[in-house]
Amino acid sequence: MPDQGEFYQRDRDWHPPAYVKEYKTSVARSPQYSLISLQNSVGEITGPVFGHNDIDPMDRDLIHNYATAGESAIGERIILHGRVLDENARPVPNTLVEIWQANAGGRYRHKKDTYLAPIDPNFGGCGRTITDENGYYYFRTVKPGAYPWRNYVNSWRPAHIHVSVFGSGFVQRLISQIYFEGDPLIPLCPIVKSIPNQEAINSLVAALDMNSTIPLDTIAYKFDIVLRGRRSTLFENRLEGN
Amino acid sequence: MVQPLNYLKETPSQTAGPYVHIGLAPGAAGFDIYERELGWDIAGPNAEGERIRVEGLVIDGTGSPIKDVLLEAWQANAKGIYAHPEGGGEVEEGFRGWGRVITDFDTGEWGFDTIKPGKTPGRNGRIQAPHINLWVVARGINLGLNTRIYFEDEAEANAEDPVMNIIEWERRRATLLAKRSEKDGKVVYRFDIQLQGQDETVFFDV
Ligand SMILES: [Fe+2]
């Protein structure tokens, strides 16, 4: 039975609310009226389609995709891998996954980032790939460093990799952040804590995956991404009506 | 106790942060890494229909333009077909219907060139007025915001549009109307997004 109906309603109590007093930037950027609930139509269940012509296989290797030939980025070498699934636990194949991150010292290659940790000349900080037919993806990169940010006087972001995923319908569009197992900064971070549910927070922490490390070369973390699932068209829930 | 349903929970959202450009629009942010940037050409060279530009600001609760926003557009072609296997048919070669822009670091202005979309099918046989679906992310936005750009000169279609009609307040409906003008012989639609206040833009839970 193919999934051809609407996407399941988003559980807005599982996501962070728009207004989070402790995350100061959200205060003036959070809509205050209720969202208008909208049932899916064709523009919601469809979304952009990407193919291998859009990207380069090298784009998934952040250790080398900005490095001078023969050189590589500085830092703890990691593989970040996992699957993109939907809420029905089915793989989401052929979908674009994009990541961006600070370097091993916690510095972004961005003109607005003035943190004193140095730029790594061999590290750009972004990568992208398309999931295979089983929804599987992987990147090679370096583990990003923690960095300070202006929220409280002394606020530090836990090490994290930003991730953007599409899915097949525009309402699945999602941006999140991947944290790393064992990081003591995770429970202190106001952005992490914008998520009200501890179980939801745990689902953003990538697990050390010893079985996927490359011995003497690269350590591995596993991170599965879950996008909204779709109804199957069992009875009367066809979008077009009758 | 009952049987478990075994659905997975969606990955919770986190803000795109201040450096979203690095990941999603490095070229636009002056950072040369990818050979092919995604999302800069929505309609392609062969698309039928009226060539338009859509531009605006994203304004925060203090009335100031936000200068670190990323917006994505998703739209049908002039015949109302989306470039997707379930989009209702074939589209012109090169028409993708998807675009991605960032706000200017100094002014906060954003804008994209495209074609004006056609009417699209709605639920239960109703027709939706031409519109562009818009997704807005930025530092301080914890979960991407969904809205729609409608066109003020489509008054008749807008009046019949099923989505416009579920918005109870006329004043709020107006926040979804892009204002048409001409600049240097080009059709420009203005669509400013207000995140807060009396004229807060309508955002949807889709
Ligand atoms: Fe970050």
List the helices and strands and how they pair.
The complex is a heterodimer of chains A (242) and B (206).
Chain A: E1 36-37, H1 42-45, E2 77-86, E3 96-101, E4 126-130, E5 136-142, E6 147-149, E7 155-157, E8 160-165, E9 174-180, H2 198-202, E10 205-208, E11 219-222, E12 225-227
Parallel strand pairs in A: 2-11, 2-12, 9-10
Antiparallel strand pairs in A: 2-5, 3-4, 3-8, 6-7, 8-9, 10-11
Chain B: H1 20-24, E1 51-56, E2 58-59, E3 69-75, E4 98-102, E5 110-115, E6 120-121, E7 127-128, E8 131-138, E9 145-151, H2 155-160, H3 162-166, H4 170-173, E10 177-183, E11 186-190, E12 193-194, E13 204-205
Parallel strand pairs in B: 1-11, 2-12, 9-10
Antiparallel strand pairs in B: 1-5, 3-4, 3-8, 6-7, 8-9, 10-11
The complex binds fe (ii) ion (FE2).
Classify the helix fraction of chain B into a percent range: under 10%
Which value, in Å, is the CA radius of gyration of chain A? 19 Å
Write the CATH fold name of chain B. Answer: Protocatechuate 3,4-Dioxygenase, subunit A
Count of beta strands of chain A: 12
Secondary structure tally: strands of chain B = 13
In which range does the helix fraction of chain A lie?
under 10%
Largest interface: A-B, 91 and 81 residues
Sequence of secondary-structure elements of chain B: HEEEEEEEEEHHHEEEE
Work out the helix count of chain B: 4
Distance between the termini of chain A: 20 Å
Q: How much strand content do the residues of chain A show?
A: 15-25%
The CATH homology group name of chain B: Aromatic compound dioxygenase
Query: Which structural class do the helices and strands of chain B define?
Result: mainly beta
Q: What is the highest CATH level, the class of chain A? A: Mainly Beta
Organism (chain A): Mameliella alba
Pfam families (chain A): Dioxygenase_C, PCDO_beta_N
GO biological process, one term (chain A): 3,4-dihydroxybenzoate catabolic process
Domain Protocatechuate 3,4-dioxygenase beta subunit N-terminal (chain A): 8-40
